[in-house]
Amino acid sequence: MIEGVPYRKIIHVDMDAFYASVEQLDNPELLGKPIAVGGGGPRGVVSAASYEARKFGVRSAMSGVLARKRCPDLIFVRPRFDRYKEISGQIRKIFHEYTDLVEPLSLDEAYLDVTHNKIGNPSATLIARDIRAMIREKTGLNASAGISINKFVAKIASDINKPNGQKTVPPEEVIEFLEQLDIKKFYGVGKVTREKMYLHGIYTGNDLKSKSLSFLEEKFGKSGRFYYDIVRGIHKSQVKPSRIQKSLAAERTFNENISSEIFMLERLEGIAQEVERRLKKNNLAGKTVTLKIKYSDFTLQTRSKTLPLFISSKELLMENVKDLLYQEKMKDSVRLLGISLSNLNNEDNRKEEQPPPDKTIDVQLKLDF
Q1: CATH number, domain 174-238, options 3.40.50.970, 3.90.280.10, 1.10.3860.10, 1.10.150.20
Q2: I need a labelling partner for 280 at 20 to 30 A (CA). Which of 58, 153, 165, 304 fits?
Q3: Is 74 exposed, middle or buried (0-12, 13-18, 19+ CB in 10 A)?
Q4: Other C-beta atoms lying within 10 Å of the C-beta of residue 104
C-alpha cells in the first residue's frame, strides 16, 4: 500500500497501430503487409505504421524517404481522417457503456475511471477485457489496455503486452513495477531528459527513487517534484471527461520550397479556409492568431497577435495573417506554413466537468482489482 495516496481504478485503452489497422481492415489486400499511413514523397512523413512495417524500424514522424530505405517494400496509404474519426466515435460509445469518466487523449487512446462503473463490476481487469472484446466485435480492430491505480501507471502498463494484450498493475505491485522499469519507459520522460538522467546515473525507476527531492528539483527544475512523486506511485491527476479545446489549427507541407510571399499568401488562403471550416464545425471563435513558418533548414518560427474581439471567418484570419507574414522579411525559403487560432471563446464560458473526489481504496477494492 502507498500511504496517503488516493487509489482509483484507471484503465488506459490504446488502439493497436490504429490508422494502419483501419486501412488494413478496409482493404484486406493490405493485411500482413508493411504499410505506412502518410506521404511517401520527398517531403512525406509517416503518420502511422503497421506492425509489419515496424519490424523494419519504420516509425511515426519518420520521413517517407527514410522509411522507404528501411523497408523497400513499404506501401504508402494516404490518411483518411474522417474514417478514423468515425471508428473512434464507435469506440468511445463503447467506453461510455461502462463509465462517463472518459478522457480521450487522441482518436486512438483514452483514460477511463471505472472505480464506480455503470455495470457494477468491481474488477477493472475484467472490464478492460470486456471493452477490448467489444471493440474487436464492433469494429474488427484490436486494442491494448493498462490497468492500475492512476493514469501514469496505467499508461505505461498499456504498452507492456502490445499488441492485443493488457497488463494490470494492482496496488500492492505498483512500487516494485516502477522500481524495475527502465527510465526510458517512463511516460513523460523524453529523449533530452533521459540523456540528462543518464548523466546522473539514473537508468531505472529504482535509480530515480534513490535521488532526493532537493536533488531532482536542482537538476530538473519544476519537473523534479513530478519525477519524485511518480516513481513512488503518486499521480493525483483525475480522469477529466471534458477537455476544453485550447486552440484550432491547420498547416501544409509543400512539395517544393516557397520563397515568394505572394505564393505563400496563395497557400495561406487554403489553410485559412480549412481553419474556418473547423471553427464553424465546432462553433468556435478566437482572439489570438498565430502564423507558423518552417524554413528549408527546418528551423521553426511563430508570429502571433491578439485581437480585441473574437474572429472565425477566413477573411478576418487572412487579414491578420497577412500582417504577420509581412511583419519581417523571410530569412530563407519555406517548406511549411500553418495558421492557428487560440484564446478561444470556450475557455471563459465552460468549466471542465470534474469527477467525484478521490477516496482511499478499501481492502475489497484492492482484492477485486
Answers
A1: 1.10.150.20
A2: 304
A3: buried
A4: 16
Residue 362 known to bind ligand: no
**pLDDT tens, residue by residue, 184-211:** 999 888 888 999 999 999 999 999 999 9
100 belongs to an annotated ligand binding site: no
The DSSP code sequence of 196-227 is HHHHTT--BHHHHHTS-HHHHHHHHTTHHHHH
pTM above 0.70, yes or no: yes
Q: Which run of H or E residues covers position 302?
A: strand 300-311
pLDDT score at 366: 53
CATH architecture, range 18-79: 3-Layer(aba) Sandwich (3.40)
Distance set, CA 123 to CA 2, 143, 197, 237, 360 (Å): 20, 19, 37, 21, 16
pLDDT of 216 > 80? The answer is yes
Q: Looking at the annotation, which residues are catalytic? A: 109
Residues of the chain with pLDDT > 70: what percent? Answer: 92
